[in-house]
């Protein structure tokens, strides 16, 4: 005998009278269809806004993380690298908004994301409380939240094989067949 999966929503729905269940199903289906159609595009645009905004703050010398970044990359020319990082982030944002080279944009994104975790290694005293990796400081929380951005990048990256020429916001195209299947 198998135990049924724990699905509280399904259990509640099964107990509802049909006259309530049908309108709830229609609303649920419409909401799910909306999220499926526009979710990835909205994720891409909002991630682009974040990168353009953060990059612009760096380029205009108004970023609140300037000291953190410069202390982390102490082995590079700090002021120059900081501006380059800002331009890099703006480029990522523009690449997400206008995804004509999404693979390249995501490569820049992955490199930038990897770099953000350097402060955990180079500045552990600023990243953790009492030298415990389980006790994050404000700086540590700031860095660790990038795991959410990485997850967003994975979702966006999952679309690169589905994109085609002329794809617009929310457009999905079938995956391109492998080169061996396309012929000479």
What is the count of DSSP helices, taking H or I runs of 4+ residues?
Answer: 10
Strand order, main sheet: write it out.
1-2
The strand count comes to 2
Give the overall shape, derived from the CA principal axes.
extended
User: Structural class of the helix and strand makeup?
Assistant: mainly alpha
Mean pLDDT: 89
How many domains make up the 3D coordinates? 1
Roughly what fraction of the amino acids lie in strands? under 5%
Distance between the termini: 55 Å
H and E order = HHHHHHHEEHHH
Unreliable segments of 5+ consecutive residues: 165-174
What Rg, in angstroms, do the CA atoms define? 22 Å
Largest sheet composition: 2 strands, antiparallel
Task: Provide structural commentary.
The protein is mainly alpha-helical and 184 residues long. The protein contains ten helices and two strands. A two-stranded antiparallel ribbon has the order 1-2. Helix 2 (18-59) runs antiparallel to helix 4. The longest helix has 42 residues, at 18-59. The protein is extended and about 65 Å long. The model is unreliable at 165-174 (pLDDT under 50).
